[in-house]
Specification:
480 residues, alpha/beta, TIM Barrel, 2 domains, eight-stranded parallel β-barrel, binds iron/sulfur cluster
Length: 480
């Protein structure tokens, strides 16, 4: 019996997970199987993750969004970590990476696997460094021990920083911001101290064997991603990418699924080049990008600077986007930052899908637009990407229940609501009454809009959102 999704796919078997994915994506199960067999898509689904609702990551499918969570030494209780998982899934994360570096990592990870309906990713290097007592104390045996344990616990995909090699390090000397990946800096430090090749590269075949046994998907880390526009697309970044291409093919030989991580900070005119190059070098393995941020000048708004790059990357063929929050480069995100970051990235992912004319992608836009034109405010809120935010903003000025059927909102007001004017004109006669009024304004009593042009009544309903206390640790995307 096949141990991994790619092995089953290569043998011609459509698994239950492929069936479920096909149903979720409205695609033919056989097409899903072909994409997985060819390594063009992955279904991260550890055989030990029983609560998982399988999903697929690949450029031919809906673009996915990842959110990072995790504890630190300062905030390390199980309840808080579960609440973070809930918050990420509530706001639409398709996968969640636990980048925790605090206490009780095993208990938290096992609880996450037990409760998470979305794939769970980790960076096992972090736990290994913590257990070793520092980057220089790491050993190959310890790395394998931690990776195997996390695979047994049910982690669906792991970031493995095996692509940064000793010969790449001199290429970073002229950089403006050096090595900004946490995993990359740890591996570089280890290689310099020990005078040896990257230990994860050295034990790569053993990692493949572990992943094949439990069906863990590789997320090959981009340790040399650019940390600023000046370093984008440099020799170091592309040298590592070449190695990631070789590692992709080696993993496929073991029937192990692979996706490849990407930058970082990239100017707009080079985003597509990055995606196209990764697709070519890595034979179409799914590209999982952080941003990229298209400018360095907007700390506090990096969910926007990066969502611009993410939308462009999605249109160019990136399969999954790792969210960035407004706190990027500045501090620890709180719940509102997670919400804003996920909203920005779900917009980027959906815009990419619409731009790529993915089957059914624009149906959502069309349905919301119809509700908007029909002044069906409740339907408009329900269809909104963030229904609570849409309702809240509308109700700030027109809170009454009667305004849920009003043929205007406070943006233009009743007299200048273009959609109402347009509808009235089409229905015949109303445009005439508008122009025949003495003052040239709307005769509200005569207008079909009159029924809803009343003073506000009713109450402003508050949202029912999960609460996360201020200042708690939510890991930054750049942490890995
Ligand atoms: S008032 Fe303006 S913004 Fe509001 S519904 Fe009418 S056209 Fe749209």
């Amino acid at each position: 019996m096949a141990r991994t999704q790619i092995q089953a796919a290569r043998e011609g078997t459509v698994t239950d997970a492929m069936e479920r994915v096909a149903e979720r994506e409205n695609r033919d199960p056989e097409f899903v199987r072909e994409q997985v067999a060819d390594g063009q898509a992955v279904i991260p689904a550890n055989v030990n993750h029983e609560s998982l609702d399988p999903m697929i990551i690949g450029r031919e499918f809906a673009t996915k969004v990842n959110a990072n969570i995790g504890n630190s030494e300062e905030t390390s209780d199980l309840e808080t970590e579960l609440e973070k998982l809930h918050t990420a899934v509530h706001y639409g994360a398709d996968t969640v990476m636990d980048l925790g570096t605090g206490s009780d990592l095993d208990e938290i990870r096992e609880t996450h696997v037990e409760h998470s309906p979305v794939p769970l990713g980790t960076v096992p290097l972090y736990e290994a460094v913590k257990r070793a007592g520092g980057p220089e104390e790491l050993t190959k045996d310890l790395l394998l021990e931690v990776i195997e344990k996390q695979a047994e616990q049910g982690v669906d995909y792991m970031t493995i920083h095996a692509g940064i090699l000793a010969e790449h390090l001199p290429l970073t000397d002229g950089r403006k911001t050096g090595i900004v990946s946490r995993g990359g800096s740890i591996m570089a430090s280890w290689m310099e101290t020990h005078g040896e090749q990257n230990p994860l590269f050295q034990v790569y075949d053993e990692i493949c064997e572990i992943f094949a046994e439990h069906d863990v998907t590789f997320s090959l880390g981009d340790s040399l991603r650019p940390g600023c526009l000046a370093d984008a697309c440099d020799e170091a970044q592309y040298a590592e990418l070449d190695t990631l291409g070789e590692l992709t093919r080696r993993a496929w030989e073991y029937d192990v699924q692979v996706m490849v991580e990407g930058p970082g900070h990239v100017p707009m005119h080079k985003v597509a080049e990055n995606v196209e190059r990764q697709q070519e070098v890595c034979d179409g393995a799914p590209f999982y990008v952080l941003g990229p941020l298209v400018t360095d000048v907007a700390p506090g708004y990096d969910h926007i600077t990066s969502a611009i790059g993410a939308a462009m990357a999605a249109q160019a063929g990136a399969a999954m986007l790792c969210y960035v929050t407004p706190k990027e480069h500045l501090g620890l995100p709180d719940e509102e930052d997670v919400r804003d970051g996920l909203a920005a990235y779900r917009i980027a992912a959906h815009a990419g899908d619409v731009g790529n004319e993915r089957p059914g992608a624009r149906d959502w836009d069309d349905a919301l637009s119809e509700a908007r034109y029909e002044f069906d405010w409740r339907e408009q809120f329900d269809l909104a990407l963030d229904p609570d935010r849409a309702r809240e903003y509308h109700d700030q000025t027109l809170p009454g229940d009667n305004y849920k059927e009003a043929r205007f909102c406070s943006m233009c007001g009743v007299e200048f609501c273009s959609m109402r004017i347009d509808q009235d004109a089409r229905e015949g006669g109303e445009m005439e009454s508008l122009t025949s009024d003495e003052d040239g304004g709307t005769d509200l009593e005569a207008s079909p809009a009159a029924e809803v042009n009343r003073p506000p009544v009713g109450t402003h309903e508050s949202g029912d959102l999960p609460s996360v206390s201020d200042g708690e640790r939510v890991e930054q995307p750049g942490d890995d």
